[in-house]
């Protein structure tokens, strides 16, 4: 009996050791693992910055040397590790188990300017902003400021390492936030490991993050005053599912001359007339960049309530440029009005491309099975653009 109990204890002990070491083993296998950093402690200093305890970076980097490593390159995260309550770093990636987490990407333009690429979580748009940056050799702290000279953010550069043909930048910075008591936001800090991008990879980033927010830092952030359940997001899908060719929701590439369906969803991707945002705003007005007409999907004023939870339209694209530069993309925005001003906006960026004869896809299922008898093609954002298969 004693022998059996002893065997059971040994098995349990081995399982516990295996469970505890699995995350460490996984971390050890990564080329950017830096055990020295994971053994350190991090604290909040008097300025509210989370930094390495002791304030001195692990690697003492001269500014000129740092410039030669950073400037003219882009840097994209490959590992993010949250600082725990005890000041130590977690050994599992912060992004595991978090849906739709989108970290920042940096491009150091010069010794005093950088570009930050990020996704606007409220509007679900891919943005960029140009910032000034300054570096303190003694602490490794980088201060990022906007055009007005106001401090936007910070990061502490801890180390730069090279592994074979790759370069890795180790940074302590804010990686997110959580809501605590009284609906207050508490910052989450962590170690972010950035990998240096190739020139082609950097071009891909530049072509993805296309909305310039550099000049909007001094404007009041009205979005923060909107209740969470009254925030909405634009969804665009083919009205005829046969046109999707197996693509699920969430893609942004659409063939011209095919009927598209637009609607607003909550963060769970649901849409119904009972959603709170249809009762919170006085009106919701849609627009398309470069097109003259606006569409009102909600009127909720003067004891009058009218809502359209779905819009449909064709989008016509004459250019056959397949590279999808910024000029080729289509930006659709839905503005929420309250008290006579915009208090919330959501936008979506679409790639409208052409196939078929003269950019007209005669094989479209919408044309083969039209929803209206006269085959009329229309654009709700430009009423002057109407086409017809019958030559009207």
Task: Tell me what the structure shows.
With 392 residues, the protein is mainly β. It has 6 helices and 22 strands. Strands 3-4-5-6-7-8-9-10 form an 8-stranded antiparallel barrel. The radius of gyration is 26 Å and the shape is elongated. The termini are far apart. The model is unreliable at 14-21, 218-224, 318-327, 365-375 and 388-392 (pLDDT under 50).
Quick structural summary:
With 392 residues, the protein is mainly beta.
User: Spans with pLDDT under 50 lasting ≥5 residues?
Assistant: 14-21, 218-224, 318-327, 365-375, 388-392
The global form is elongated
Instruction: Please state the average pLDDT score.
Output: 76
Largest beta sheet, briefly?
Answer: 8 strands, antiparallel, barrel
Number of DSSP E strands: 22
> What is the count of DSSP helices, taking H or I runs of 4+ residues?
6
Strand content: 35-45%
User: What is the helix content?
Assistant: 10-25%
In N-to-C order, the SSE pattern is HHEEHEEEEEEEEHEEEEHEEEEEEHEE
Please give the radius of gyration in angstroms.
Answer: 26 Å
